[in-house]
Amino acid sequence: MAINESGRCVTADIAAGISPAAALFHSLADETRLRIVARLARGEVRVVDLTAELGLAQSTVSKHLACLRDCGLVDYRAEGRQSFYALTRPELMDLLAAAEHLLGATGHAITLRPPSPGEPVTGLVDAS
């Protein structure tokens, strides 16, 4: 469910006894995946658009999307030869909002999801 040091998803960790909760948080414990999730929170997007917006290689974006897909957080729809990725679980935004609140309470305010109108933006998410 999360990518290990060798770049592979470690779904085998769950089979080896790591709890699904730990695997979920591990899958979100990567800044690139958080940036992808934040972008997908604004709507579906193609890999080519993510590479341009995030300034990353196609292989890197694809690897992280595969991890998020393995976790059931992201899926895609094919349209011709293109794939459009989107979040599958709206509850993820609630989790990120709770994390923002907790980080703010501990003196580390950061924005992990697209802000509501008038809400200040700090940290990870781009205001556009």
From TrEMBL:
<dbReference type="GO" id="GO:0003677">
    <property type="term" value="F:DNA binding"/>
</dbReference>
<dbReference type="InterPro" id="IPR051011">
    <property type="entry name" value="Metal_resp_trans_reg"/>
</dbReference>
<dbReference type="InterPro" id="IPR011991">
    <property type="entry name" value="ArsR-like_HTH"/>
</dbReference>
<feature type="domain" description="HTH arsR-type">
    <location>
        <begin position="14"/>
        <end position="107"/>
    </location>
</feature>
<keyword id="KW-0238">DNA-binding</keyword>
<dbReference type="GO" id="GO:0003700">
    <property type="term" value="F:DNA-binding transcription factor activity"/>
</dbReference>
<dbReference type="InterPro" id="IPR001845">
    <property type="entry name" value="HTH_ArsR_DNA-bd_dom"/>
</dbReference>
<protein>
    <submittedName>
        <fullName>Putative transcriptional regulator, ArsR family protein</fullName>
    </submittedName>
</protein>
<dbReference type="Pfam" id="PF01022">
    <property type="entry name" value="HTH_5"/>
</dbReference>
<keyword id="KW-0804">Transcription</keyword>
<dbReference type="InterPro" id="IPR036388">
    <property type="entry name" value="WH-like_DNA-bd_sf"/>
</dbReference>
<dbReference type="InterPro" id="IPR036390">
    <property type="entry name" value="WH_DNA-bd_sf"/>
</dbReference>
<keyword id="KW-0805">Transcription regulation</keyword>
